[in-house]
Write a structure and sequence with these properties.
Organism: Sulfobacillus thermosulfidooxidans (strain DSM 9293 / VKM B-1269 / AT-1)
Bound molecules: ribose-5-phosphate
Number of strands: 13
EC number: 5.3.1.6
Order of helices and strands: HEHEHEEEHEEHEEHEEEE
Pathway: Carbohydrate degradation; pentose phosphate pathway; D-ribose 5-phosphate from D-ribulose 5-phosphate (non-oxidative stage): step 1/1
Number of helices: 6
Number of domains: 2
InterPro entries: NagB/RpiA_transferase-like, Ribose-5P_isomerase, Ribose5P_isomerase_typA_subgr, Ribose5P_isomerase_type_A
CATH topology of the largest domain: Rossmann fold
Structural class: alpha/beta
Helix content: 25-40%
Keywords: Isomerase
CATH architecture of the largest domain: 3-Layer(aba) Sandwich
Oligomer: single chain
Strand content: 25-35%
Length: 228
């Protein structure tokens, strides 16, 4: 396992230490969350009783494969904990998410969690967000108009494609526009401007959501609590 994968694994496994018997858990999407799901599966095999909601179809499949019982928001309206990765973490703990296209479900799940644990390797830390293109989920109808209006806000936006060249379609049957705004110095301002556009479903900006940021460089793990 390379150093970055080791860092992701260490951060993910530290997050799973927060999980207690009987909890309801939001399961993130991506290569870092993968390690959390695997570790949770081990603990479930040892007798831990949890119920979980996945943030993508891929995550639901991974959870089922390790026998984590899945529920839906018809069963609960609040989760004890959500664990998820991020594409960037800024100095003010705002996040960019959606590199895997799961941002809408991820934001819904994180917003329902009493504590949202962000798990990252050290390469994800930045001063201001923006090196990683900002994913914005848009409805397919009139996406060209939404694309135009988003670019009018001051970015270059590209509709995400799959490896085979076809448009990437989210689990919610929408498109993703990857937006290059340069350095994002005021994430709430940008988020609000994007959300005001008809056709924008959600942005990958996660602001004031993290309860803890758990970071590893593959040797050490640090836990920061932004809200304390
Ligand atoms: O849509 C994907 C998610 O926001 C991921 O949490 C994010 O892209 C980080 O993924 P990874 O852990 O693979 O770097």
């Amino acid at each position: 396992m390379d150093k970055i994968a080791q860092a992701k694994k260490m951060a993910a496994e530290r997050a799973v230490d927060f999980v207690e018997d009987g909890m309801t858990i939001g399961l993130g999407t991506g290569s870092t969350s993968y390690f959390a799901i695997q570790r949770l599966g081990e603990r479930v095999a040892e007798g831990l009783r949890i119920r979980a909601i996945g943030t993508s179809k891929r995550t639901e499949e991974l959870a089922q494969a390790v026998h984590i019982p899945l529920i839906t928001f018809s069963d609960v309206k609040e989760l004890d904990l959500a664990i998820d990765g991020a594409d960037e973490v800024a100095h003010d703990y705002s996040l960019t998410k959606g590199g895997g296209g799961a941002l809408l479900r991820e934001k819904l799940v994180a917003s329902a969690a009493r504590r949202f644990l962000v798990i990252v390797d050290h390469t994800k830390r930045v001063h201001h967000l923006g090196k990683f293109l900002l994913p914005v989920e848009v409805v397919p109808f009139a996406w060209e108009l939404t694309h135009y209006r988003i670019e009018q806000l001051g970015c270059r936006a590209t509709r995400r494609r799959q490896d085979n060249g076809e448009p990437f379609i989210t689990d919610n049957h929408n498109y993703i526009l990857d937006c290059d705004f340069g350095e994002i110095v005021d994430p709430p301002l940008l988020h609000n401007a994007l959300k005001a556009l008809p056709g924008v479903v959600e942005t990958g900006l996660f602001i004031d959501m993290a309860y803890a940021v758990i970071e590893s460089d593959g040797e050490h793990v640090t836990v920061e609590y932004p809200k304390s």
